[in-house]
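Why run this: before we spend reagent on co-expression, it is cheaper to look at a predicted model of the complex and decide which construct boundaries make sense. The entries below are exactly what would go into the expression plan.
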Amino acid sequence: MSRRPVIAGNWKMNKTLDETKALIEELKPLVADAEAEVVFCPTFVNLAEAVKLTEGTNIGIGAQNMHQAEKGAFTGEVSGEMLTAIGVKYVVLGHSERREYYAETDEGVNEKTIKALALGLTPIVCCGETLEEREAGNAESKVVGQIQAGLKNIDDITKVIIAYEPIWAIGTGKTASKEEADEACGWVRKTIADMYGQDAADAVRVQYGGSVKPANVAELMAMDNIDGALVGGASLTADFAKIVKY
Ligand code: 13P
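The model came back. Tokens follow.
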């Protein structure tokens, strides 16, 4: 069982077009010989340019969200068809910020995941508990519930990347300890085993996200259940290359 590590930068609502181009050009040579799969997720408006600038490189471009419908009266939304048409290969789904600020649900995440896979996009599906849930001893049940509901009825679960991102560690500088992160990624894998069998669970990749930086990435990546990182703040400068090549 060997799972290829995947390191993804979620740029969130950061970087203008010029800034996007500059960071991609800066990072391209720095990550060119990375062993890990490399993904950059800029904002929607900068995706087409990001795809063009990374053609022929080892960098894949991902969106930060998509709508499950092909088209229609959904003001402000972007469909998976629109993403694949410009060469986007990945899509982050169910990020905790989308769940919190835009009322995204596990049901919606499930619909989007199924749609993304049907289009050949690789979904990066996020899960994770709040600080209150962790302190109340409910972290595992929260994560298991999100996986059971968000990832049901998937034809090939091994094509999905799952990102465990404890909400209390996102943008706070507070990383989960490597043991906490590994334990939670293990809950994810066990849930996938219960739903889809052990072979699928052994093959599916589970990322950790939440204040990953050059200084802590190696110890996280050394853990059995952690196959990659979903990185926010520390993916916004050329230092991201140090994470990619941990
Ligand atoms: P930070 O790396 O800034 O904590 O963000 C993590 C995250 O939310 C990535 O999706």
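The pocket of 1,3-dihydroxyacetonephosphate is lined by residues 10, 95, 165, 170-171, 209-212, 230-234 (CB under 6 Å). The chain is about 40% helix and 15% strand. Bring this page to Monday's planning discussion.
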